[in-house]
Specification:
Radius of gyration of chain A: 21 Å
Largest sheet of chain C: none
Structural class of chain C: mainly alpha
Distance between the termini of chain C: 83 Å
Number of domains of chain A: 1
CATH topology of chain C: Serine Threonine Protein Phosphatase 5, Tetratricopeptide repeat
Number of helices of chain C: 13
Number of domains of chain C: 1
Chains: A mainly alpha (about 280), B alpha/beta (about 300), C mainly alpha (about 260)
Order of helices and strands of chain A: HHHHHHHHHH
Shape of chain C: flat
Strand content of chain C: under 5%
CATH architecture of chain C: Alpha Horseshoe
Number of helices of chain A: 10
Largest interface: A-C, 58 and 48 residues
CATH class of chain C: Mainly Alpha
Strand content of chain A: under 5%
Oligomer: heterotrimer
Largest sheet of chain A: none
CATH superfamily of chain C: Tetratricopeptide repeat domain
Distance between the termini of chain A: 26 Å
Helix content of chain A: over 70%
Number of strands of chain A: 0
Order of helices and strands of chain C: HHHHHHHHHHHHH
């Protein structure tokens, strides 16, 4: 009998199936509608005739909606898809086939990551269209002086923002997968993942303040904490873009590189933890 | 020729909580399952059947012992290349149609792309779901789910098919249909392992059985031997010869009796099973139930015999 | 749960966390440079402001935006009764999110130009009350606005718009031409300053009778202007130089040669 070898084709099949399953969940549609509602609700700013600054308000709302609902989607969809496989015994059926567990994990990750890309992409495009439309209207009507130097919104940076957030959500998906691979319930995984998300957002405090701790054991503990968790503040570039500051290429490249490293690491850890899991 | 499955000294423990307490699900199990037969794996709930199957399929790692499929250790992914598995009460991706579902698993098993669609149609037709192939799995009845489950297990034409409670919750007609599909699989040269509580079905189709209780193998052998070995009260005559038939029938008729059939008497498998598992109360209940059924069957087969005689 | 696996996961993450610092470090330093609220001066900062910023993450801007809308709703009532509330809201918005210059500038405008008018109107309106009273209301509101803008300078030391705003308030509300000229000059000397700041500086000097100073300033300015940029209005500047030369009676031979 010939050996079964690692197959990207199988990963692709699992990913596609995971993606389709996720898209057909009511939860996804619900989040998309709410996020869209929030982005579009920035239209209330029109009533105030802020002029050009209206664009900043729209961008703030758009970025906020993407960050909030993208994070929720990354955690809940990952945990949900993972545990539905186990609870519905589809995982048993699949893993009883000639397939490596790593293929299963990578496939699940790629499926959810694709879902997150669709979500982030959709929101970014809608936000850009809305900004472009309002910018044109304000340029031609309310506040032409503000646009002497041409268009104010850096659309390229908005797409960079979309990419960076998508990568951050993908790390979050990887984290949730590691958590799900050793925990027994969906709810526990979701809660623990949200706690880790919070820690990652606060990691920079430990990262920048550990040396100031006076008591050596505390210093060591805080240092450990800062090294173990990734720094999610690094992805927080939306405010800068909304304020009209452009993101230099090297900074963008470093952030993307950092995200890719963590995506790979969390995927490998999920495989490691899931390898021995008894189904 | 290598066995379809060989299990040697298999023990599987599950840790209980944080202490060193362990639940022993399977203990020192050794089993050889030869190629091309229908093998029944029987046992009450919690007897270790499902655990054994999961170890065979590499879903669980054994605590001790070894397990292999056609000579390849279960720990290797390659061992599952020639296995089709229908889990108990399968619940598939509900939004896929039957066709898409079987196709999905076909691609996972790397059925050649050029042959995939034909093969999927073939197995769906074979399990009798041609009409429902393009309906969503979510709308399927229990019987249909079992049949689509069988189709996905067979899509890559495996040599070994493992069926976990394939007729659980399926009505008697559907159940009989699945039985006949299993027998057809055997005709195709496949090995079938059947886990079932429905002993009537097991009795009808299995060549060999093994009974597990509390993780231990307590009985294994040819079904026919097992059910006919026992000292049965329905043994009528010893050293019987076929030429006695007419004379005996006449002799009986003269005494207002009638020869219904001449056959080797058997206990019902239910009784063998329950006796060994030691649930005597349940056994008595079951026995009286079975006795009713047996009477009706006897009458029916008597008619059959008469008809056969007439035609010959 | 498998504790051994958990330990392995932590160790791997620890090693990766250290190994990835060369990629992350420079990016983090740059981001922190651009984002004052991420800089932690000391431990108290880390625990107070840091946690708030960290938790609010991308939502701080939204919170400030919503409070800004609330500020506008209150301001729309246009009466002295809402002055304390409006001023408090402006301070709150700029404290939560000091980054948008927009909040500072518009808050200062509300305080200097709108609130002073409300106060005059409610005291009997322009023309009916003594000039000294009008003067006092204007000055008081202007001072509050300038204090706000001086705080804005701490957050945005390199933004000329703030200085121009201060100069405007001195000029239009306090009629303090000296101060206005000074702030226009500082603004004009900053990078990214709008070209009109330099012209207004000269204009105020001229109005104050400082013709020499204005003339020197404009001559220096002229050399830096781009004839292709309509905002620079190079010809207008030259016209002003000529006017000043007439006023100063500069002999033809000594006149400015572009």
């Amino acid at each position: 009998m010939s050996k079964v070898v690692f197959s990207p084709a199988r990963i692709n099949i699992i990913a596609k199936n995971t993606f389709l399953e996720a898209v057909r969940q009511k939860f996804f549609g619900f989040l998309v509608i709410i996020a869209l509602g929030i982005i579009l609700s920035s239209q209330v700013f029109r009533d105030f005739n802020f002029g050009a600054p209206e664009l900043k308000f729209i961008a703030d709302f758009g970025f906020g909606a993407i960050v909030l609902f993208g994070s929720v989607l990354a955690i809940v969809a990952t945990a949900q898809l993972f545990f539905s496989e186990i609870e519905n015994k589809t995982a048993i059926t699949i893993l009883a086939k000639p397939i490596f567990r790593s293929e299963f994990i990578f496939g699940k990750f790629l499926g959810v990551s694709l879902l997150l890309l669709v979500f982030t992409g959709m929101m970014t495009v809608i936000l850009s269209v809305l900004l472009f439309w309002r910018e044109t209207a304000i340029m031609e009507g309310v506040d032409p002086e503000a646009f002497e130097a041409g268009r104010m919104v850096a659309y390229g940076d908005i797409f960079l923002y979309g990419i960076v957030q998508w990568l951050k959500f993908s790390i979050l998906c990887g984290i949730t997968m590691v958590v799900a691979s050793f925990s027994n319930t969906n709810l526990y995984s979701v809660i623990l993942s949200f706690v880790i998300l919070l820690i990652c957002h606060l990691q920079y405090l430990a990262r920048d303040a550990w040396a100031q701790m006076e008591f050596l054991p505390v210093q060591l503990a805080v240092f450990m904490l800062s090294a173990v968790f990734p720094n999610f503040q690094l992805f927080n570039i939306g405010d800068q873009i909304a304020l009209g500051e452009s993101i230099p290429f090297e900074l963008g490249a470093r952030i993307i590189g950092y995200a890719l490293i963590y995506i790979i690491v969390f995927n490998l850890l999920a495989v490691f933890s899931f390898r021995k899991r008894e189904i | 020729m290598t066995s379809a499955i060989s299990i040697e000294d298999l023990t599987k423990d599950f840790p209980l909580g944080f202490g060193h307490l362990k639940l022993r699900a399977v203990e020192d199990l050794s089993l050889e399952i030869a190629d091309n037969q229908v093998f029944g794996l029987l046992g009450p709930n919690g007897s270790g059947k499902s655990t054994t199957i999961k170890v065979i399929l590499g879903l669980l790692a054994p605590t001790r012992g070894t397990c292999g499929i056609f000579g390849t250790p279960s720990a290797e992914v390659s061992s599952r290349r020639d296995v089709g598995f229908l889990p108990e009460a399968p619940y598939f991706y509900r939004y896929l149609t039957g066709f898409e579902l079987v196709r999905f698993f076909g691609r996972i098993c790397q059925v050649e792309k050029s042959k995939l669609n034909d093969r999927v149609h073939e197995v769906i037709e074979w399990v009798g779901l041609k009409e429902a192939a393009h309906r969503r799995v979510g709308t399927y009845s229990k019987g249909m789910l079992q049949r689509i489950g069988l189709a996905q297990a067979l899509v890559h034409d495996p040599r070994l098919v493992i069926l976990d409670e394939p007729t659980a919750g399926v009505d008697p007609v559907g159940s009989a249909e699945i039985s006949s599909l299993i027998l057809k699989l055997k005709e195709q040269g496949k090995t079938i392992i059947l886990c079932s509580h429905l002993l009537g079905q097991v009795e009808d189709i299995c060549d060999r059985i093994a009974i597990l209780n509390r993780g231990k193998l307590i009985l294994e052998g040819e079904l026919r031997d097992l059910v006919s070995k026992k000292d049965l009260r329905s043994v009528v005559v010893q050293d019987y010869r076929e030429e006695y038939n007419d004379e005996l029938a006449g002799w009986l008729q003269a005494r207002e009796s009638r020869l219904v059939s001449v056959e080797q008497p058997q206990y019902s498998l239910d009784r063998v099973f329950l006796e060994h598992v030691g649930r005597s109360e349940l056994a008595r209940e079951k026995l009286s139930e079975r006795a009713e059924v047996a009477k009706q069957q006897d009458t029916a087969s008597g008619k059959d015999n008469e008809e056969k005689k007439k035609s010959s | 749960m498998n504790w051994k696996a958990l330990v392995v996961i932590f160790v791997v993450l620890f090693v990766v966390g250290l190994a990835v610092r060369p990629v992350e470090g420079p990016a983090w330093d740059e981001l922190r440079e651009r984002e004052p609220s991420l800089r932690l001066a000391d431990l108290e900062d880390a625990l107070g402001q840091g946690v708030t910023v960290g938790l609010l993450g991308g939502f701080r801007a939204i919170v400030a935006d919503l409070l800004w809308i609330r500020t506008n709703v209150i301001w729309e009532q246009q009466e002295t009764a809402v002055i304390p509330a409006t001023e408090t809201m402006i301070r709150l918005v700029t404290t939560i999110d000091p980054r948008p210059v927009y909040f500072w500038l518009n808050g200062a405008r509300m305080i200097a130009y709108d609130m002073s008018v409300w106060r005059v109107r409610e005291a009997g309106d322009y023309g009916n009350i003594p000039d000294a009273a009008v003067r006092r209301y204007h000055d008081e509101q202007a001072e509050t606005a300038i204090r706000l803008l001086e705080r804005a300078r701490e957050f945005h030391p390199d933004r000329p718009e703030i200085l121009i705003e201060i100069a405007n308030i001195y000029l239009r509300r306090m009629e303090n031409e000296e101060k206005a000229a000074e702030y226009y000059r500082i603004a004009a000397e900053m990078e990214g300053a709008p070209p009109y700041a330099a012209r207004i500086h000269a204009e105020i000097l001229r109005r104050m009778g400082e013709y020499e100073q204005a003339y020197e300033w404009l001559k220096e300015l002229y050399a830096t202007l781009d004839p292709g940029n309509p905002a620079h209005q190079k010809q207008v500047v030259l016209g002003r130089i000529r006017e000043l030369e007439d006023t100063l009676d500069v002999p033809l031979i000594q006149r400015f040669q572009p």
